[in-house]
């Protein structure tokens, strides 16, 4: 990892309120198909979210330019995850969504400009967690997948800082209070038991 990339990842780790729990990582080997399929879904949804914002907020050219580049990169990541699925002969199939993003989005205010700003902050939090998960997963996955996730670290850290920059630029002020609310909610989602194993889930609840 280059010094620049390491600094970007360290900023992500400092930003997040907690690391991925070991209990979730211990469950990865038994749930590799769900992990990869849901990761592909996450990349596809991330591209869709960026495009949705691009279409909705045409009065912000700097934001549109950033979102266009981000959407292309997310779709490329989707393709790459699908290649790993194919290599393992894991069929791409429908999976129910985790509670993670929907729960975070419930904190978005409904009036502008805060609807846009809060949406960008939620995206920043999600990208930060994805970066942290890539780093954590690299320590428990087969080497080809571990290498793939290590390669994604830089782009995911860049997406995090990009979304955060755009939110603070448009707010014209610190977003610390809203971020604190979102990060508290995010920590609870990551640490509390879940009913389904997903890329952004908490550890599976004991039966």
Key features?
single chain; 207 residues; mainly alpha; 8 helices; 0% strand; globular
Describe the protein.
The protein has 207 residues and is an all-alpha fold. 71% of the residues lie in helices and 0% in strands. It has eight helices and no strands. Helix 6 packs across helix 8. The longest helix is centred in the C-terminal third of the chain and has 29 residues. It starts with a helix and ends in a 16-residue tail after the last helix.
Biggest sheet overview: none
- Compute the separation of the termini in Å: 39 Å
Instruction: Using the alpha-carbon principal axes, give the shape.
Output: globular
Q: How confident is the prediction overall: mean pLDDT?
A: 96
List the helices and strands and how they pair.
Elements: H1 3-15, H2 22-27, H3 32-56, H4 61-87, H5 100-105, H6 114-137, H7 143-171, H8 176-191
Helix pairs in contact: 1-6, 1-7, 3-4, 4-7, 6-7, 6-8
Sum this structure up briefly:
With 207 residues, this protein is an all-alpha fold.
